[in-house]
Write the structure tokens for this entry.
Amino acid sequence: MSTTLQIRRADISDAAYISLLGRITFGETFGHLFSDKQDLLDYFEKTFSVDKIERGLQKSENLFWLAFVDRLPVGYAKLKLNSKSAFWEGDSICQLQKIYVLKDFLSMKIGFKLQQILLQEAKDLGFEKTWLSVLDSNKRAIAFYVKNGFSNVGTHGFDIGKESFNFYVMLKDLSN
């Protein structure tokens, strides 16, 4: 049996899908890093509530895509337009803010396909650069981004509850 992959732009009616995918994929990837599970649950509510996702979908600078395998939602991505970075001078920059794919579907290269769509959209809109933050211990993601032309340009910290995390800031030139 062959599987069918569909990727499409998300709209406000997709907020619940994105909310649930965000919670599950974040938990799958980072849940083990939290000593206090309530901190993780609080972060889910702050970051992935349906209301927050709906508000995000209504902002013109946020572009979301959803990936479906055999009509099941399995991943999503978010591009934030005109997202300044301390590591780049200029106005023509956007942020690859999220690419989340359910663990069971990672081998299908859905993250790569979502990234291709986001980067093409950014180029089509005239952006020169895109940046992202990636947890410094997420070796799989770092290797993925390096393989796809991103370079490490700096670091920053981020706290969630009692936990402190270090992130690499990675930049990609879209003119190539």
Summary: The first strand starts at residue 5 and ends at 9. The chain has a mean pLDDT of 92. Strands lie at 5-9, 62-69, 72-80, 93-101, 129-135, 151-160, 163-173. Residues 15-30 form the longest helix (16 residues).
